[in-house]
Each structure stands twice: as structure tokens, then as C-alpha cells.
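ok so for the tutorial part 2 we go from a plain amino acid sequence to predicted C-alpha cells. step 1 is just haveing the sequence, like this:
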Amino acid sequence: MSYLVKLFLGVSLLLGTLTEPQIALKVIDTCPLDKFAAALDSLTKPDENAKTGAIIEWNDREAVINRYKSIAYIRNCTQLPTTEWPISTNRTNPLIINAGEGTTGTRFLNCFMRRIGLPSAHTRGEKDGRTGEERARDNRTEFLGCSHYGSCTAGWDQFNYISDSPVAYQIWELLQSHPDAIVFQSLRQPQPWKKSRISKHMLQNANKWHQAGPCGMADHQMDHEDTELDYVVYNAWARCILPPRSIAFSFFSMKTHSVLLKIMRALRLRRIPLILRYPGATREKTMSEIAHDLEEVCGAEPLNATYIAMKRNKSIADALAAGKQPQRLTRPRRESTISETKEDKTPEGITISRPWKRLTNLLGFS
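step 2 — the prediction. this is what the C-alpha cells look like for a chain of 366 residues:
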């Protein structure tokens, strides 16, 4: 063996470069099948202790598990630390993460976090969701992408609370780079989530988006027939890898007040300082009073016009989105279930449409 070869081998051993090849980390390594099944059951079965229903209603358990198997043994996950994802070391307080996908109440919760004094990131996208026009983006209120910062970790570390895309796509890296994170998971029923996700972001071509999946994103677009199934797969996997004390909830099936109380109590346990930032806030307010106040305040913010529309009606949402104060709150008008094409026959055998029948009844000709 030549002197140069011996020298090279000696230096290599000294620097520790001659190590065993690193085995790729698979999704299945992050969440084995038994733990995935348990996480799935925790979301899809009623909580007998809390006396609450299932957060996600999904009957085909086997389809979810089989879908997870088809992904888990193939897809790789990032092994941290890396240059893009170093371990966070410069935080005073833990990073607060919402692992849920967008259109699960993330905008409303983002408002809540801001109002209790936590600088928050909620992605709004490059186009205005109402007009489809390009808009300026603000790195003080949203994460602009890893390339805009020294590292992905550094970019997220400028916020106290983060939610919406691309959080769900990067949840594995976020949890590994922030091992002391406080994590929540906002959820919604799969079918209404898909419908709302596409319709509310149609001008941003949401039907062509790829939803989140284990360690990345789903292979297909949002308008695919398996979107609801993959929504359940992602959330069960996320539930599996989240810290044990993480809270899963749904603003759509649980009382908003009780959810906000749970969140504040979780933050209090971790000694997160809260600074109330809304009209009428005082130090004497109880957590229950704060939750009640912010349910109203954040429900009335212009950015949450869609939330108002869901709770009340579209005219109020449009007024709030335009920065106007609605004159009155009304219950949504029920759409008529009577079709104008349906016809009835009078005792005389004359065929009339139902709207005309109503009119003849009112006029006393029935």
C-alpha cells in the first residue's frame, strides 16, 4: 500500500468520514403501523371520557391504513439537523405550531394568537383570494419561503405562532428542529374541508394545489377523488408524531369558547406570557372572559369574513370584507326547496306549477 493511500485512510479515519452509509429515514420509521392506527382511532372514534363525538367522521378505517402503507414504506423524511434545518437555539419561548391544514379555522386562530400578544405567521399567498390580483407580501405576518432566510429554521423563528401552508408540509422538520414546540391541530370533516378549500381559493387555482401528506405533500391535486382519504391519512400521521400533550380540535363541531379556553390553558402550563391586545382588555379579565371577548373580536375581523359567513350570512361577510360595519345581524335565509319545474294538478285536472299554486291559494282561488 503506497504512502499516499495510507495517508488518505489515516486522515479519513481521523475526520470520521469512513462511517457506515446512512440509511434513509422512511415515513414508517416516524410512525409505525400500530401507532398510526391508534392515532387514527383517537380522531375518528368518540371520546367516551370527554363525552364528545369523533373529531373526524370516517368509517373506512381499512382504506386509511392501506393508503398509509402505500406511502409509509416508500416516502423518505428529512433527517435533521441539516444546513436548511438546523436545531433552533435562539428562542426565548417555545415555537407554537398549528399542524392542521388551511381552511380549518387557521385564520380565526391566527387572529386569536395575535390578540393575546403572540407574533403570528399565516400565509395569504401571492394572489388576493377575493380578486385574484397579485399583492405585496409582508414577511412580518407570513413566512415567505426558506430561500428568503438564512435557513428554514431561522425563517420560522421570527414568529411565536405559525399556521397554514407550508406548515403542514414541513411539520416533520418543524418538530425535529423545535423539540420543545407547543403544538395544536385544527381539524374539520374531510368532505366540507375539500369543498371549502377549493371554492374559497378558486381564484388562486386551489383545485390544482397539492394537499399535505406524511413528510411532504400528496401525489395528486386537490380535485382528485382521493383528497378526503389523504386528508385523513395526513392528520392521523400528524397526530402520531405530535407531542403527547398536543391538542386536536375542530371549530366546526366544538364550541369555540371551550376550544379557546383549552388553548389558553395549554399556553399557561408552558408559561407563555400573554399580552392582551384588543379593545376593553384588562388584567382583571378571566380566561373565560378573554375567550368570550376574542370569539367576538376575531369573528368580526375583515380577514375573517368567511368565518362570519359560515356563522351568520354572506351579506355581513361582504360588509366586513369591505371594512364596513354591518347594520344588523340576521339569520341566513333558507333556500327554497320547491322547484319551479314541479307541477301539481288541481281538482279540475288543470296542471299548474307550484309557485302559481301558492299565488292562487293566497288570492282565494284554491
